[in-house]
Amino acid sequence: MSEPTPAIDAVTAANAAFAAEFSADLAAPPSRQLAVVTCMDARIPVFEAFGLANGEAHVIRTAGGVVTDDVIRSLCISQRALGTTELLVIHHSRCGMQGITDDGFKADLEADLGVKPPWAVETFTALDADVRQSMRRIANSPFIAEKGAVRGFVYDVDSGELNEVMSA
Ligand code: ZN
Asked: 28 CA distance to ligand 1 centroid (A)?
């Protein structure tokens, strides 16, 4: 017997209603040639908050909006295979990553599971500094060809404002 999945059941029901009204014929390359890297946080309504529509941008979401190796993989494909040229990095206020530490999280995992993860948790405390860190990783990556049009921001989950992070 599998576990109940009430949230997923609600999604499939909502999708049936959505699909009944929906049709689209969009090309895969984002029409605004834009890629967005941001946090998986449930309070960032990316398309609504940033004026984006279906088909216009790639949105790559991770815990913290951290630019990991796998984000570099996605951005490389976004640029080289699908033509994006501008890149937006967005962290946000009251991020869940600010409430944990790498060492603490790994120690908890080891205590519970007997094994530490091979990956870095990549928690952070200072938002602006971590946006700069993410932008430096992009700047330093040989796999990111389009480095000229990269800008970093912090989104405020309470006011909805997007504030640019200036280079230090
Ligand atoms: Zn977050």
From this structure: 27
